[in-house]
Hints:
Elements: E1 4-10, H1 17-29, E2 43-48, H2 64-76, E3 80-85, H3 94-100, H4 103-110, E4 113-116, E5 122-126, E6 134-138, H5 140-143, E7 146-150, E8 152-156, E9 160-162, H6 164-167, H7 176-183, H8 187-201, E10 205-218, E11 225-228, E12 232-236, H9 239-249, H10 259-263, E13 274-278, H11 295-299, H12 302-311, E14 318-322, H13 332-336, E15 342-344, E16 351-353, H14 363-367, E17 373-377, H15 379-385
Helix pairs in contact: 1-2
Amino acid sequence: MLKTIVSAYYCDSYDDEYHVQNIVDKTIKSLGNISDIIKPKSKILIKPNLLSAYTPDQAVTTHPAVVKAVVKLVKSLGAVPVIGDSPGNLLKGVEYLWKQTGMLDLAKEEQVELINFEVSGSVEVSIDHPAIKYIHITKALIDCDGIINIPKLKTHTFMGFTGGIKNFYGCIPGARKIEYHKLAPTQQDFSCLLSEIYRMLKEKVLFTLVDGVIGLEGNGPSLHGEKRKFGIIAGSYDTVSLDTFIFNVLGGKNKVFLKPLREKNLGNTDLHNIILVGDKLNKFDLKNIKFPVTRILNMVPRWIAVLIGKHLGKFFWLKPSVDQEKCVACLQCIKSCPVKAITLIGDGIKPVVNREKCISCFCCHELCTHKAVNIEESFLAKFFIK
Length: 386
């Protein structure tokens, strides 16, 4: 396999806009001649991670300083940037989300269009997946000439890690994301789905740039995660190489999400074929990362997981539970549950999780903006985790 380049530079803060711009420019230009892939007058869709209406200082969404630097770079090459995503939680509307994440101010300053994938239309495409034959992706991808992917560096309770490949799940509009979670309930099934989404988009992806200046460890990818200054901005023309590099440097052991990417030859998953340019690894804080408590679920081979579910399911489990005191009854958890395992019981106005129906996708945990959804572990699960 040909060698691929990952470029990484140290950045300790978002405070100095010019410094962030300089780091982003160096990171991208270290990959090769960017003017060869971004042509004048081309329409470039910039895809950040805008999970929900979080402020930049919460380190859940891609920081606007990084997005702005990419916008400026694209404009300097004579191309037309637009910013788009399909957030998981829009209870207060997309305008509120644009404002909270800093994208609204950015768009006004740079005169850039914001695209809501919920209303931009979608197209149905066939995929190679054991349970899903067709998926819908946003029409905005069809209408653009190229895609720049800007994920946030975070841990993830379901996937273990969320990076470049996972960020493309936001290209599926609205509630269909919930539907596909139901049809792909295991990490293996979901990894296969992600690989198919990336396969469809790969030819249009110009590069991926990860915002890892400050991200999340622990039970990410939202408020239950713990903020951590990784101090890194990294990029690659090959999204798979970038995810492989970062996941390995973080000490990730479960590489299930890389398997279908490798089998379909969608990118480089061999560290020996990745060339790192930029700053040396010891400049970044990437060691001894806390992975989610749910990592035990992702480390178990599928056939063992089936046996556990069949014989030890009552004793070995990790499930979400709603903290009734913190809950504000926004009901986002009910709306986000793909199998309708969260309901209002009796005369109650607060949601309750039905553990027997729950598939442990942790969408409710991810999308609750009030930290009201916790992860409970059975005694046996706690024994293995510790």
